[in-house]
Each structure stands twice: as C-alpha cells, then as structure tokens.
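Handout, section B. The chain below has 281 residues.
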Amino acid sequence: VATALTILDGPFWVYDSLHRRRQAPIVGSDDKLVQISEDTVVKLGRDWDSTTSEALAMELVRKQTRIAVPRKRRAIRHLHPEGNGLIVMDLVPNSQQLRVAWPSLSFLGKLKVVLTMRLYLRQLRRIQYSSNNTPGPPGPTPLPCNGLQFGYDAKGPFPTISALETYFRNEHSLAEDRASRGWARSPNCKPLDTSAFTSLVFTHNDLNMRNLLLDDHHELWVVDWGFSGFYPPWFEYLGMRYAAQKDEDPESWKKSIKHMAEPAFKVEEWMKRIGYGFPDL
C-alpha cells in the first residue's frame, strides 16, 4: 500500500506514465482500472462526488452483506485525464470475467452462479443507509443517476422518489409527443402506476457479465459499483436485461436473469412501449 500511495502522491508525469502502460493487463477491467502493485489496483473516477459515493457503496456492501467485493483501501481526491478522484482497492487475484468463464462452465457451475447471484441480490436489498429514501447514489446530497434505465446519459439528481416518478411520467409524455408528430409509434399505454415507486432498495445497477469475476476458487466477485444506489426494486432486473442485450451475452445468461433478479415484466414492456430498450428485447 505504501508503494501505491507514494506513486499516487508523486508528480503527475509518474501517474501519467503509469496510466498509459499496458505491461500488466487486468483480466476483467476496463481502461479506467490501473494495476499499481502486485495486489493493488486504482479505479479512475469521473468526478469526486461519484468517486466518494462508489467508495461508500463498496463499504456498505462489505459491512452489511456477504457479497465478495474488493476491499477499498482509500479514496483520493486527485485530478487525472479521466476526471477527478481515485479509489485504491485490492486486486481480485486469479480471476476472469464471467463472460469469459461462462462458456466453459458445466451446467452445475452455471447453476451455482445463478443461485449465488440470486442470494447476492437479496442481500443487497437489505442494505440500510441514512439516505435510503433518496433515489440514486449514496451520499450526503442527491447525485446524478446513471444506468441503462436512463439511457446512456446521467439524469437527475432526484431529491425525492416523487421526483423520480415525475421523470418517468415526463418520458411517457415525450413518447406520446413523438407519436403525435409521426416520429414513432404510439406507446398506447398509461404512465407507470404509482405503485412502481413505493419503495427504494439498494441496487448495483450495472450487473453485466464484465462486472462479475470468478476466481480460481470459484468464488463470484462483484465489481464496479459506480452506478449503484437506491432505486425501485425493478431497476436491477431491467439493468441486467438491457446490459445483456447491449453486450450480446449468451442466451443462457439472458434466460437466467429472471431467476436472479426479481422479474419486472410489466415495467419492461412499458419501457419498450415508450422507446427504451435494445433490439430484440
């Protein structure tokens, strides 16, 4: 850790050269994850608020569940080419993305993953925090919300669950307006019922096969908590469905989603009608 922090606190050119090197690629990472020692990686944050929120989310999950999550060592306020903020955390050793491991797993191996995910998601819903009633990332103030349920851009922040409901009502109105102008088919549906917004539960919100790692002991790790927060219960299911379609994941994985996350078929159909979703969903 000392070596890692020395590097991070050093001159920018040292950090920049570290960021650009590709000598030790990390299986299951993207370009915003950098390995800085044998057992340590650094995630580059978009901004300081989202960095601290993700670090907090990781702590909540580690303390209140039995989900395998990398240990967060430190969050550092640091400007870099990708934004502001760094999260120093443990490397998940000898692991690979689930999308890489999935084809070689036996039926029982895949079933174990599905059942583990089912258990993980139930544990997530029990997480408590002082901002439980505020939609979006955990933290002292409402923050912008990310997730495929909002498209590709962040929306909000939403100070109350009523504000989140209003957002989706406005999306329904926009769909009707597009139809009236002849730009799209009529959604032919009413706004989402208020019952869809009666509660918020902790949600990973980006559970794709790239953010699930299997180590050599067959333990399933969940990484990349940058989109996590408190959302209606149907968010997790839709996020997994949309990610699986966008990433063109195996059909066996797509069909398993309804056995991992609580299905939300009616909301999924409603979202399709107003223009959300991906081809063939």
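Note. Strands lie at 33-37, 40-44, 72-80, 83-90, 95-97, 201-203, 212-215, 220-222, 229-231. Compare this with the example in section A.
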